[in-house]
Amino acid sequence: MLQLNNITKQYTDGSGIRKVLDGLSLQVDDGDFIAITGESGSGKTTLLSILGTLIAPDEGTYTLGDVKITDSADQLSAIRNKQIGMVFQDHRLLPQFTALQNILLPLLANEDSVSKEATEKAEQLMDFMGISLLKDKNVSNLSGGEKTRVAICRALINQPLLLLADEPTGQLDDVNAQLVANLFKKINAELHTTIVMVTHSQEMAKVANKCFSLLQGKLIVKN
Ligand SMILES: Nc1ncnc2c1ncn2[C@@H]1O[C@H](COP(=O)(O)OP(=O)(O)OP(=O)(O)O)[C@@H](O)[C@H]1O
Ligand SMILES: [Mg+2]
Fold first, then answer.
1. What is the number of the ligand 1 atom nearest to the C-alpha of 46?
2. Which of 28, 70, 115, 119 is 20 to 30 A off residue 37, Cα-Cα?
3. How many CB atoms lie within 10 A of CB 95?
4. CATH code at 125?
5. For the chain, how many structural domains are there in total?
6. Which ligand sits closest to the CA of 88?
7. What are the tens digits of pLDDT across the range 7-60?
8. What atom in ligand 1 is closest to the CA of residue 47?
9. For atom 27 of ligand 1, which residue has the closest CA?
10. CB 58 within 8 A of CB 9
11. Domain, as residue range, for 202
């Protein structure tokens, strides 16, 4: 499905140059559920941002399906919208809107209004994720675990081939973390969505079928 080859990424700030990714390669196959762990600051979010085409690497190549990712903005936003769903650690839901409205938001990037079919699709996803009853609730009134599940539904509304999740259980208690872990398993198995997930939690990493650790700018196979 995708291939990263010899990726490097460095940041320059007041304290100098810091090479965060240093010759990193990764192959993701269709149907994979990959967990990536690593210390704080090791570059996990940077890696996910490259996979999500939010930032470009300094060197190396990224091939997604048949497409060699370049920094042509038009091409990237189309790919991002149709093929990739992202769940951010801080959810990035719009607080003034309901759960359903937040889930439908990505569709409004391409159209002025949302079709009845799209609304039904969002309702099916909410049902799949066990949050049907929250449909018309304002997201600012939801718990952390509920917000996570709304954010996952929003990431899935365009039926992406690839779901990227940054610490989806980072702020959850054990019970909610387990619930979300099981939902990722279900998404991978039943919706056949390929998943790359960053996590601090060893428990969460166990539900994946491949596990890597990000160390000194490269991925090391774990297990
Ligand atoms: N835009 C930026 N400008 C400068 N430095 C950055 C930028 N983004 C990240 N960094 C630095 O790059 C390093 C890797 O950051 P990154 O966010 O990828 O780490 P992480 O593994 O996701 O950490 P955490 O587990 O804490 O979320 C950190 O040292 C961070 O300070
Ligand atoms: Mg991070």
1. 18
2. 70
3. 12
4. 3.40.50.300
5. 1
6. 2
7. 999 999 888 999 999 999 999 999 999 999 999 999 999 999 999 999 999 999
8. 18
9. 40
10. yes
11. 2-221
